[in-house]
Structures are given as C-alpha cells and as structure tokens.
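Problem: given the chain below (380 residues), write out its structure.
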Amino acid sequence: MESSKLEFEKAIQPLRTRIDQIDSQILNLLAQRQEQVEKVVNLKKKHHMPVYHPAREEDLISKLRAQAEKTGLDPDFMEDLYRVILRQSRVRQTNQMAHKGVRPDAKVLIVGGSGQMGAFFARLFIKSGYDVRQLNSRDWERAAELCKGIDVAIVSVPIDRTPEIIDKLAPFLEPHTILTDLTSIKALPMEKMLQAHKGPVVGLHPIFGPTSGSMDRQIIVVTPGREPETCQWLIDQFTLWGAVIVESTPEEHDSIMELVQALRHFATFSFGQFLHKRGTDLERSLEFSSPIYRLELGMVGRLFAQDGSLYSEIIFATKERLELLKEYIRSMSDHLEMLENADKQMFIEKFNKVAEWFGPFSEQAMRESTFLINKLTERF
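Solution.
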C-alpha cells in the first residue's frame, strides 16, 4: 500500500509541475492581453469611442466557442471564462474612461446632488474633469450664483418633487444651458422642462441603481426634447463611460416602465408580504430550496433590503401605473375558479397559450436563467 502511494506521488509530481507552469503561462498571457487593452483604451480616449462594442464581443465569443469545440473543450466553459475576462476588461476600460471628458471645460449643476443617484453622477463628472456644483434643499438662496455659467443642469430629486423643482430652477438658467432630469417617469417631467426652459432639453432615465459602482453596460434611456444636437455631447459622455443608450419617446418610456418597474416591483412586494403574513421560516425553506427558488427569494430579499420610500415613488408615480396594478390584481382573481375546481386541463390550456405567446424568447430565457442558476449553485 505504501509503495503504491509513493509510486503515485512520484508519477503525479511532474504532472503537477507542468500544470503549475501552464498556469504561469496563462497568467503571463493575461498580463500581455491587458497591455493590449491599455493601448485600446488610449485609442478610444483619443477618438471618443465607447467602451462597449456588443457586436465585437459577441463575434469573439462565437469564434471562441467554435475553437473550443475543435480542441475538445466545453464551449460553455470557454464562454463563461471569456465573459469574465471581457467583463474585467470593460470595467477597467470604463474606470479609465471615467477620467476622460467629452467637454471637460463644461460646468455641471446637479440639483439633489446629496442624494444617492445625484452623488453617483457627481463623482463620474468630477473624475472626468468637469466643474461640478450641487444645489440641495438648503442652497436655494444661492441658486442664482450656482446656476451662473453652467452648461447642464441635472435634476435628481424624488419623482413627486420633480415638476416643482423644475419650475423653481428654470428662471435661473441661461438660454444655452441643457436642462435634464433623472426621473423614472418621463412624460410629465419632459412637459414641465419644455414649458419652463426655452433652451436645450433632454430627458434621462438611468435603468440602474446608484450602488452599481460602474456604468459598464448600464442602460440609460434618452428622450429627446429640444435642440438634440446641443445635448449630444452629454449623451456621448455617458457612452464614453460605458453606458448603453436607448432612445425613446416619453410616452413609450412610461408605458414600458409601467411593466418593467412598477408591475415587477409590486409583484415582488406582494410575494414578500405574503411570505411575511404566513410567517414563513425563510432559512428553513432555503434548506429545501432549488436554485431557482433561492434566486427568486433573493430578488424578493433584495427589494426589502432597500428604501421603501424609493419604491413607493416608483409604484405610485402615475395614475396609469395604479390602474395597471389594479388590473394585475384583478387578473389574479380570474384564476380562482380554476383553483377551486382543481381544473388541471384549464391550467394546461392557459399555460400553452401563454407559452405560444412568449415564442422564441422562452428559449433565450431558459439559457439565461440556467446560466444564473448554475452560477448560484457554484456559490451556494
């Protein structure tokens, strides 16, 4: 037995040594790759090109998957590995781009700069060399002074206060100043900005939270208002920071956000409230949970780990959102007859009808959710 162990150790040692050598080569190659990334960053800075190039990344992933198959490697493993490498590369580029300003001589005023989202953008503008000023609730006596000579005024206050603050701010703005907001509804703020300010106007909605840490692949919805050519440098700055720009009308934006934000948050809130009302033992339930339940419960817990007043502003923002949520509740009651009758056939018919409506997206959803579940399984 002892001789077998010694024989094994003798045979495996050169294999381990070779693996260590290969690991060192991989690290060296990653360092060489990073050197080339630095050169790419410098070129992008020089020519004001965006960090994220989706077509380039997807083409690279497709090629790597094909190469992996030819060499006997798992294509999914290769894709996972390079997604991490590409993500790290983008974040590094984005952090370096944060020091590059499209118009670094511009003066930026953030109304509500002490709030989380306002502070997030203030840091980005400051890193890029902009002259950043903040106008908070205690600063209105200095509003005229703070607004003097500014190139862009960004309103970052709670939804219900946005129209009031726009009216209050507009008289201090100069004709060339870009007026914009970061509100998660767009129709009313855009109407107010266009009425109150005669200069350039653009609506913005960052589809992410201030804790994101990076603008890498984060979506910003842009709703053009007036003088879009004057506002373009501001949009270019977001792109340079790594953001993905989606253009929309205020009406389309608000209609989609009713589903993407209000309905989603309310449904999550309702699930969490139901668990609380039943006195569910969360920790015990997780011991029995599948990865998909843990993922779903994680999203519920994430909601309740944040500020309730923020979500109340989103959910109760417009009468249209409230009507949609009431419609959602009524749709849930439509299933009572099916449950009371234990009508499995009705369930299957409804299920198949919805599945047909989802169409090819179901396959995409299966791939994406499987990826998330596998990652969750690896960690927990």
